[in-house]
Write a structure and sequence with these properties.
- The chain is mostly helical.
- It has two domains: 190 residues, 3-Layer(aba) Sandwich (Rossmann fold), CATH 3.40.50; 56 residues, no CATH class.
- Helices cover 51% and strands 6% of the residues.
- It contains twelve helices and five strands.
- It has a three-stranded parallel beta sheet, sandwiched between helices.
- It is globular.
Length: 277
């Protein structure tokens, strides 16, 4: 189950898990880390109590996770859950993680250590400029605000000699064996929910949470809140910036879902029952 941030995936997944005897496996590149439960919208204690959750807050802030590692951990969770007679319910907004699990990652050439050293030495702007030169279409296919993803995309393009899209299209399987759905609501309603969720972040103390966080984070809104803590932006400007970053992220998620998954789209209302009696 996937869909954009703010659509209500966490609550929907718990409702489904309760009905089918399931356990939830997170598929979110930010929620998988511990330390920022408010900013990354970890499921609340009430939801966690209603259904077991896996791969939420699992990795320490200083740790690392990519699509390959996620797929390996998720498969371990699936085997464990199935061995106990339960049904795995995979839910999250990181489409690449879900597709890595369902389709398998394309085979890429071995990493050239010298190339990686060269790319790691590039500043964020220089790496993005070089990626644009090597593959003009690549920046639109990734989160170009994320230096790690820019550098990884550049590494793939330079290693393969092909556009990034060509490497991403080479999945190992057709995704057979997995059934899924995409949750979707009207953009106007999604925008309203995201505005409400951003307000709730600040009411719940996200500024103090980010101030205490011991490392850097790529989580949506982290950079903007750090700027507020440093005194370079006002509180109102910070909120507006967090909203814009979240809204742009949600739009990228919607685009990914439309182009990468053949799952049916569900537009659940408050009274929608995921498993009819």
């Amino acid at each position: 189950m996937t869909g954009p941030t703010g659509v209500g995936k966490s609550a929907f997944a718990v409702k489904l898990a309760e009905r089918i005897g399931g356990e939830i496996i997170g598929a979110d590149a930010f929620q998988i880390f511990s330390g920022l439960p408010i900013l990354t919208a970890h499921p609340g204690a009430d939801l966690m109590a209603r259904a077991p959750h896996h791969l939420v807050g699992t990795i320490a802030p200083s740790g690392h996770c990519d699509a390959a590692r996620y797929a390996e951990m998720a498969r371990d969770c699936i085997r464990d859950i199935a061995s106990r007679g339960k049904i795995p319910v995979i839910v999250g907004g990181t489409g690449l993680y879900i597709k890595a699990l369902t389709h398998g990652l394309a085979d890429l050439p071995p990493t050239d250590p010298q190339l990686r050293i060269e790319i790691s030495g590039l500043g964020a702007s220089a790496a993005l400029d070089r990626l644009r030169e090597a593959d003009p279409n690549a920046p639109a296919q990734i989160d170009a605000r994320n230096p790690a993803r820019v550098r990884r995309a550049l590494e793939i393009v330079l290693s393969t000699g092909k556009p990034l899209a060509a490497s991403r299209s080479g999945w190992k399987s057709d995704g057979g064996g997995y059934r899924g759905i995409v949750l979707e609501i009207e953009p106007v309603e999604l925008r309203r929910r995201i505005e409400k969720n951003v307000d709730a972040l600040f009411e719940r103390g996200v500024v103090d949470e980010v101030a205490r966080f011991p490392a850097e984070s790529l989580a949506i809104g982290f950079r903007e809140i750090r700027a507020f803590i440093a005194g370079t932006v006002s509180g109102d400007d910070c909120r507006s910036a967090v909203f814009r970053a979240t809204w742009h992220y949600a739009k990228r998620q919607r685009t990914w879902c439309r182009h990468q998954f053949a799952f049916p789209t569900i537009r659940p209302g408050d009274d929608w029952n995921p498993v009819p009696s």
